[in-house]
Each structure stands twice: as C-alpha cells, then as structure tokens.
Amino acid sequence: MMIFSPVTVGQVSFLLGVIPLVAAWIYSEFLEYKKNSLSSKLYSEVNLVEVEKEAVKEDDRAVLLEGGGLQSASPKARTSSAWSPIFRFILMDETFLLENRLTLRAISEFSVLLAYFYLCDRTDFFNTSTKSYNRDLFIFLYFLLIIVSAMASFTIHNEKSPLTGKSILYLNRHQTEEWKGWMQVLFLLYHYFAATEIYNAIRVFIAAYVWMTGFGNFSYYYVRKDFSLARFAQMMWRLNFLVLFCCVVLNNSYVLYYICPMHTLFTLMVYGALVFELLWSPLTFLLGYTDPAKPGLPLLHEWHFRSGLDRYIWIIGMIYAYYHPTVERWMEKLEEAEWKRKMSIKTAVTLITSNGGISVV
C-alpha cells in the first residue's frame, strides 16, 4: 500500500490517542459479555444467595448489638468514587469502563470512519476512478428518493411556539430540518456525479443554509435569551468537530470545508456587527490557503471569496426571524378566512414563489 503524502505529527498524535480508547472499548465489551454470562449462572443459584443474605443479616444484627458499625463490603467501591474520570480511565476501572461503554463504542466507530477516510483519500488501497455524469440516472435516483421519502415526509408535527403557546404553522424545527435534509442529498449527488449543470441551484441551497444560520440563531437568542458560554461552546463544537478531525487525519486545510467556517463566521456575527479583517486577520494561520495552481494569490483570497458570496443572506435570515411572529398571525387569519379567498391567496403565493425559484435557478 502506497501513502500519497508524508505522515504528519497530527496524524501520529491522533493514532496514539485513539489506540488506548479503542483498547478500552474492547475491554469494556469483554466486561459486559462477562457480566451477562455470569448473570445466567447467578440466576440458577437464587436459593443459595437467599440463604447467604439471611446469614449476612444475622451478622449485621450481631455487629449492631455489639456497638460496632457496618463496614462496606467493597473498599474498592468506597474509594473509586473519589477518582477523577481520567485516573479511573488510566487505571482501567471496570465500573467506569462499563458505565461509559457506549461512549467508548461511539469514539471507536468514529475513529474507524476517519481511518476509512484516510485509506480512501491518502492511499492507493482503493482504485481511483473518474466522475461520470448521466442526467437520466441523476434524475431517476432523485425522484426515486422523493417517492420513498414521501412516505415519512408528510407527517404533521404540532410544535408549540414558546411566545404564544400556539402551533408554529411554518418554518418550525421539523420543516427546517426536512429542508436541510433535502438540500444535503442534492449536495452529495452534485459532488458525487459532478453535476455542474445544477451549480446555480447548489449556490441557492448554500445560501439557504447560511440563511438558516441567521434565522435559527436569531430565533433562539431572541426568544431564549441564553447567551451563556456553554451554549456558545456547544454551537462551536457542533459546527466544527467533524471538520477538525478531518483536517488532522487527512492533513487538509480548514477552508476546504468552507461551509463550516462560513457557519462559524455568521453565527458569531449574529451576536453583533464585527469588522471582517479585525476578526479574521489574526487567524490567517487557520484560514490561509495557498492554491497550488495560483500561488501568487493572497493567503486569505479563498476565504474572502467563499465567505463573500453569502455575506448578506444571514441578515435576511435574522429579519425573517424578527417578523416571523407577525407572519404567523397572518397565517392564522388566512386559515380562518373563507375557503375561496384562502385558496386564491395560497395559489397566488405558490405561483409567485415558483416563478421566482425557476427564474433564479
């Protein structure tokens, strides 16, 4: 097997960090298997256990009568609670490993996936092939997915508004998640088949993702008033943790996964208007990228280009979020209107939005 690029310090560090975690997971699975196998044996000895319990009760009663105190049956259990998680992991505490078995399994699965990425992208373990675009196959697969997914997509979810307590008729969490899912499918198909003829639609979808960043974050902070560090750190971790590990394992530049730094930027800008250069120039080491085909370009050229394409759409998302309760009231009044008027308004809105979407794409 041939490795296309030199091994980096980050890749070695990742490997050294993952090996003990995977070993701990395998050991925890062995402990779980051992515990389950012993349970059947213990089940067959119920009568003996009951007799032993009675004997223990008599001994405890005698100790109390003598003025003594009951002692713990397991000194290890008494002291293990004082260990920190790191020390308990280093010492391979069996109770700790069993309690965190599923977490260790998730870490191991994630590590296997990253190793698979490395095999596919940085070695000749798998043969390479060129992308081939076939419009008929592309459309067939997409419509097949629509037919299958339609069985679960038309479910009505009664999500309540935290402001009014009424059901959110449009742009609720389920609708936006469904919207993201359909766009993500097209992203994958677009890159897999190199379907350049739908590039304009993909640009609209990326702008829609950034729009949701402004809409979702503004809605949350405007309603919940939760500006805590924990919430901010959680959001930053969710946006960047996969990209961070991909950059380490594959030795890629952060800006190649440009959608994540874009979401990070516009999430930060929801907190307030920030000067672009003042915010990002100190981070040239992170966002800088030298294009091998154009080495004369500035280091931040790629980042300026990618983030500049959608630099205003997050503001529109915030504006939509601000007027969302007003539109909700309009929707409620529309639903209460007579049937003929309601259908005419809905038809007009559908035609206008459809024509606008077709003209843009």
Automatic annotation (TrEMBL):
Keyword Nucleotidyltransferase: no
An annotated Gene Ontology molecular function: acetyltransferase activity
Ranges annotated as spanning the membrane: 12-31, 139-158, 201-223, 235-259, 265-289
GO biological process, one term: xyloglucan metabolic process
Protein's recorded name: Protein REDUCED WALL ACETYLATION 2 isoform X2
Keywords: Glycoprotein, Membrane, Transferase, Transmembrane, Transmembrane helix
UniProt record similarity statement: Belongs to the PC-esterase family. CASD1 subfamily.
Subcellular location: Membrane
Membrane topology listed for this record: Multi-pass membrane protein
InterPro entries assigned: Cas1_AcylTrans_dom (IPR012419)
UniProt-listed Pfam families: Cas1_AcylT (PF07779)
GO CC annotations on file: Golgi apparatus; membrane
Top-level taxonomic group: Eukaryota
Domain called Cas1p 10 TM acyl transferase: residue spans: 102-276
Chief localisation class: membrane
